[in-house]
Structures are given as C-alpha cells and as structure tokens.
Design brief:
mainly alpha; elongated
Length: about 240
C-alpha cells in the first residue's frame, strides 16, 4: 500500500522533536516554538500517540535527510514552516516508495533464483536417472525388459529437456507469449486421441503370454491419457485467448 506524503507529516514532526530534544538538548517548549506547535502537542508526539509511521523514517536516506534539515534549523536558529514540512514529506515519500520497490524486486529475484535452483536440481536428477536406466537396460538380455527401461530413460531425458528450457526462459526474463493452434484444430486432434482410446487394449492384455508385455502396453495407454490431458489444457488456453 502506497504512503501519501501528507500521512508522513506527523511522523516527521515526531522525528524532528526527538532529534531536537535528545541530540541538541532542546526543551519541549523550545522544540514546540521551532515547529510552530503547542507544548502539549510535543508531549503527544514524544509519547508515541502521534507519528505512527515513524519507523518508516528510520530508512538511512530518510533519517539522514531529516537530520540535515534539523541541523540546518539549529545552526540558523530559525523555525520550520508547514510548507517546508510538506515539501520534506513529499521527498521522503518518494524515498520510501523507492525502497519498497527495491525490496519487492529483491524478494521476487530471490524467489526466482530459488525456483531456478530447484528446477536445475530436478533436471540433473532426471539426467542421472536416464543414465542409470540406460545402463541397466544395456545389461539386460530380455528384449521386452530392455525396451521398458529404455522407454523410462527416454522419458527422463524429455523431462530434463523441458526443465532446462524452462530455466532458460526464466533466466532470460522473456515475456511468455501464448501461442497455440486454433481451438477447432485442437478439438480435432483430441477427438483422434479419444478414438484411439475407444480401441481399448484391455482385451488384448488379457491374452498376452507374459506380464511384461502387459506393462509395456500399459505405458502406451498412460501416454495416450497424458496426450489427451495436454490437449484439453491447450483447448482451455485457446478459449482464453479468443
């Protein structure tokens, strides 16, 4: 939430009073004269009943600026006008907003870096898994088992590629443009995918001579379900874009 400059005025007065009394040993009456307020108001500021945004002025640049203004007043023995305080409030609100934006950017950068580290670790794990499955497959004599392990290795490589592409986009900071085929094209592809599902492999699997062959066909069905799910998600994106 943005801080309006006028909201800072009570905090500025409280900060100035504190500096005048604690740093320069001014009496409360003298501080009230400099700021053109009543001694009772000084008491309110000192007690914390005013200037609730005082903590915002602890920002190094803001604090330095206020100290410089007070030092100038003390050295010249003058007073602070309302216009001067409001001008100071305007400057300080800009400093505070700039700091807030910097903190938000720093927080977002931290989150982005953490995300990239997580994705990179996962991509590395996928590569290692692919190597392990390929190594295992090379030691197997059975053709079907080798095919199963090679398929898993191939999936792991594809997963790593997807993760690395995601990392690349995040690191470049590119704006992601939604580009998908038209809805009618996607719908046609989905229908073809669903037609393939109609020809269920359940009956075929029941006649297979070995459970390993059943495992292999189940992987085909799992891929078909995945393809259908992806196409449905793309159709939703196409609808949002239209």
């Amino acid at each position: 939430m943005s801080i309006r400059s006028e909201q800072l005025v009570p905090a500025i007065r409280a900060k100035m009073i504190k500096i005048l009394i604690e740093k320069y040993s001014y009496s409360r009456r003298r501080a009230s004269q400099i700021l053109n307020i009543s001694p009772a108001a000084v008491t309110h500021y000192m007690s914390g009943r005013r200037g609730r945004l005082l903590k915002l002025l602890e920002e190094p640049r803001a604090s330095k600026l206020i100290n410089e203004v007070v030092e100038k007043i003390v050295s010249k023995g003058g007073r602070v006008s309302e216009a001067e305080i409001y001008d100071l409030a305007l400057t300080l609100s800009s400093i505070i907003e700039e700091k807030k934006k910097g903190e938000i950017k720093y927080s977002l950068d931290q989150a982005k870096n953490k995300l990239i580290r997580t994705l990179r670790e996962r991509a590395q794990a996928e590569h290692e898994a692919a190597e392990k499955f390929m190594e295992t497959a090379s030691k197997l004599d059975n053709e079907i088992t080798r095919m199963i392990f090679r398929q898993i290795a191939s999936d792991s490589i594809k997963h790593a590629d997807v993760l690395m592409s995601t990392i690349s986009i995040l690191e470049r900071g590119e704006e992601i443009k939604i580009e998908v085929p038209k809805k009618n094209i996607l719908q046609s592809l989905l229908e073809k995918e669903e037609v393939a599902h109609i020809h269920s492999l359940d009956e075929v699997k029941s006649y297979l001579p070995h459970k390993l062959l059943k495992v292999l066909l189940e992987s085909v069905e799992a891929d078909e379900r995945k393809h259908a799910k992806i196409l449905r998600s793309l159709i939703e994106l196409a609808e949002e874009k239209s």
